[in-house]
Amino acid sequence: MPSGDTLPGHRKRLREKFSRSGLAGFHDYEIIELLLSLGTPRQDCKQQAKEAIKKFKTLRGVLEAPPEELQQIDGIGAHSAFGIKLMQEVAREFLKEKIVDKPIYKSSQEIFDYLYHSMRDLKKEVFKVIYLNSQNQIIEAQDLFKGTINSSSISNREVIEGAIKYNAASLIFVHNHPSGNPEPSQSDKEITRGLVYAGSIMRIKVLDHIIIGDNRYFSFAGEGLIEEYELDFFNSKVRGASEAKRRPTAKLFNS
């Protein structure tokens, strides 16, 4: 174990480095070391920090690890595990506040950052609806369905009823792929198309459908699919109106 002089000096250098430039230039294990030192100020935490990164692969993995699993690493006690869990929850609340009361229809990354922590490791698919007002501010976020997501499991009517309940002007849909691959299935595309159509009928705009995978996501809006579905709906309305106009004429000629 380092001497009394060495340990405080090492801690001081890390803290001064953080004070100068934040986390820029820090190794992941050094960030974990700083966090662990808050719970055990008299103990050298470098080895435990490196073990944590080795076990959970990334900084994010350590922050999201259950406290009981963190405590399986020799030298990480309940106080340190509690501190890491507290920091994770504070970061989650910060991200939540960051996306509330600001336009987010172009910020699928922020939605991903906020929901990734809670949805990444889910064993089943969860389909969420985020309701927004006319200023694109979040009113409410709800889990609509849990299980295997397909076209029969998502009720357009239930979505629209929720939008009416919250007086929502627009919607964002989010669901996870437990496989880690966020690429949309054909069923995902059909669900999204149906929801865009239902929203268009009620004049409620679908801003995006985000699929969360393993440290990445797919955005229907970002890939231009929401706009494509809106255009399809508009064209179907035009075709329907055109056919309705021709019917009386056709009947006249056939009589």
Q: What can you tell me about this protein's structure?
A:
The protein is α+β, with helices and mostly antiparallel strands. The protein folds into two domains: 6-96, DNA polymerase, domain 1 (Orthogonal Bundle), CATH 1.10.150; 103-241, 3-Layer(aba) Sandwich (Cytidine Deaminase, domain 2). It contains ten helices and five strands, in the order H-H-H-H-H-H-H-E-E-H-E-H-E-E-H. The chain has helices at 6-21, 28-39, 46-56, 59-64, 67-70, 78-99, 108-119, 156-165, 186-201, 225-254, and strands at residues 125-132, 138-147, 170-176, 205-212, 217-219. The protein has a five-stranded mixed sheet, with helices on both faces. Mean pLDDT is 82; it is low at 1-5.
Give the topology string: H per helix, E per strand: HHHHHHHEEHEHEEH
Query: What characterizes the major β-sheet?
Result: 5 strands, mixed
The outline comes out as elongated
Spatial order of the strands forming the largest sheet: 2-1-3-4-5
- SS-based structural class? alpha+beta
